[in-house]
Amino acid sequence: MAVSDGCGAPVQTATPSDVDTQGQVVVAGKVTGADGPLGGAYVRLLNAQGDFAGEVQASAEGDFRFYAAPGAWTVRALHRSGNGEASVTAEGPGLHQVAVAVSA
């Protein structure tokens, strides 16, 4: 069982590229800013229609992970230094990596 950060969300860690997703769709990546990895950002997962599907807080190293369904997704990062978003298409089970660059 994953340890919670107090808000009910599991603590985020880096997801290795060779991770066994056990048949699940995993959308994972890193939030970065001008000076590198950006920790503490709130990362939201939005479906193809732009509807909210979930939110986690990025780790101190900027890592985040969502378990999702196949489809087109937008990942949006919100941080005190700015916001950013990126798109990813998860056509089936496996790891689907996405980087989100935050700017003012």
Question: In the CATH scheme, what's the topology name?
Answer: Immunoglobulin-like
Give the number of helices: 0
Estimated share of beta-strand residues: over 45%
Helix content: under 10%
For the sheet with most strands, the description reads: 4 strands, mixed
Q: What is the first-to-last residue Cα distance?
A: 36 Å
- Give the tally of structural domains: 1
Describe this structure as you would to a colleague.
- Residues 1-6 have low confidence and may be disordered.
- By secondary structure, the chain is mainly beta.
- The chain has strands at residues 25-33, 36-37, 42-46, 52-57, 63-68, 71-79, 82-90, 94-101.
- The N and C termini lie far apart (36 Å).
- The protein has one domain (25-101): Carboxypeptidase-like, regulatory domain (Immunoglobulin-like, Sandwich), CATH 2.60.40.
- The strands form 2 sheets. Strands 1, 2, 5 and 8 form a 4-stranded mixed β-sheet that branches. It has a 4-stranded antiparallel β-sheet with strand order 4-3-6-7, with no helix packed on it.
Helices and strands in order:
Layout: E1 25-33, E2 36-37, E3 42-46, E4 52-57, E5 63-68, E6 71-79, E7 82-90, E8 94-101
